[in-house]
Design a protein that fits this description.
Strand order of the largest sheet: 1-2
Helix content: 40-55%
Structural class: mainly alpha
Radius of gyration: 16 Å
Largest sheet: 2 strands, antiparallel
Strand content: 5-15%
Number of helices: 7
Bound molecules: zinc ion
């Protein structure tokens, strides 16, 4: 019963917390490592957007990501947001961290969600339980790719 109560308590908290409880080892450096990892991914993929935000304070209208209303937050990461501001969500969900669909770090997140949180369910359920703290344009494509490569589901 204790375990059930604890799981319920975790579910009541934010998606961010759920994700950390689910994915992390007991290493206290984990959050820092994760932040660093996401930072590297974003620099690799969105360097010009990050530079524009730092130097111009805004994205160029020619950026393919212009409509996502990207901004840098105190964690140093690129977040999408604006249109979700009024939604009754946690901060992490209102301003999700942008991740590219074709990066192996994003793939690891999807795989872990598919295996541990979705219990090897199909695409729609895996998508539904993805951590809301992330925004992955073309994420469906990545989920399909992960499912295709899943040894349990095959
Ligand atoms: Zn599977």
């Amino acid at each position: 019963m204790f375990v059930a109560n604890r799981v319920a308590a975790i579910h009541e908290q934010s998606e961010v917390t759920q994700w950390r409880h689910m994915g992390s080892t007991s290493n206290p450096a984990d959050d820092a490592t994760r932040g660093l990892m996401l930072d590297c991914v974003q620099w690799e993929y969105y360097e010009s957007e990050i530079k524009d935000l730092k130097e111009l304070g805004a994205l160029r209208k020619t950026s393919p990501l212009f409509l996502l209303e990207l901004h840098l937050r105190e964690d140093g990461l690129l977040h999408a947001g604006g249109w979700l501001e009024r939604a009754p969500l946690t901060t992490g969900s209102k301003y999700p961290v942008l991740l590219p669909w074709d990066h192996h770090v994003t793939e690891l997140i999807v795989r872990e969600t598919h295996e541990n949180k979705a219990g090897h369910s199909g695409r729609d359920i895996t998508l539904a339980v993805m951590p809301h703290e992330f925004l992955v344009p073309k994420g469906r494509r990545l989920i399909e790719w992960v499912l295709k490569g899943c040894h349990v589901c095959r």
